[in-house]
Design a protein that fits this description.
By secondary structure, this protein is an alpha/beta fold. The longest helix has 18 residues, at 67-84. The protein has a six-stranded mixed beta sheet, sandwiched between helices. The radius of gyration is 15 Å and the shape is globular. It contains five helices and six strands. Helix content is 31%, strand content 16%.
Length: 192
């Protein structure tokens, strides 16, 4: 993410009363849980870092293209995961909005509930908020995801030789949607 884009993101967030966190070794802003008003997590199982796998999914729900809409969508996903599915928290480590921002889910250190018992303990789960069966996420969302992955490597949370899988590579599902799946298959880290 260019310096101009980072500054523009910070200005936009400040204007809307959001103070996105930027970790020291991170490439772009991450909206912390407190800023999207996440409920307290009841998850305690940690990951052994660095992990070597990232599983990419989509929520298959409504997209969000503004910070206000994405805050609400992150809350909706957490509510569904915690109240309906009885997870200890939102299932994903990070959520990507069409506003081009990354929303902290369980973060780098806590095991997610996003790809099944085999993959959850050895992966980071990132999800794109929206349904990408028939349309692609906007470029700013894709840039945010790539920036997040670079941050993970820089912080030692992701192995430098990490691999990316689509959710459908790990479980029987249509996630991350046909269009997003075709995009991630072009990423150099992709492994079926």
């Amino acid at each position: 993410m260019s310096r101009f884009c980072v500054l523009l993101s910070w200005a936009f967030l400040a204007h809307h009363g959001l103070a996105a966190a930027q970790d020291q070794a991170c490439c772009g802003p991450i909206v912390p849980r407190r800023e999207w008003k996440a409920s307290a997590s009841e998850c305690y199982t940690t990951l052994n870092l660095p992990v070597r796998l990232v599983v990419v999914s989509h929520t298959a729900g409504s997209p969000c293209d503004t910070p206000a809409l994405c805050l609400q969508q992150a809350q909706n996903v957490q509510h569904y995961h915690a109240r309906t599915l009885h997870f200890c928290d939102v299932g994903y480590n990070f959520l990507i909005g069409e506003d081009g921002l990354v929303y902290e889910g369980r973060g780098w250190n806590i095991k997610g509930d996003h790809a099944g018992k085999k993959w959850n303990p050895i992966s980071i789960g990132i999800t794109f908020m929206g349904n990408y069966m028939e349309r692609s996420p906007p470029p700013r969302a894709l840039r945010a995801a790539k920036s997040l992955l670079a941050c993970g490597v820089a912080q030692g949370a992701l192995s430098p030789n990490y691999k990316v899988k689509g959710h459908r590579d790990a479980q029987q599902t249509l996630s991350p949607g046909d269009q997003l799946y075709e995009i991630i298959r072009t990423w150099p880290q992709y492994q079926e």
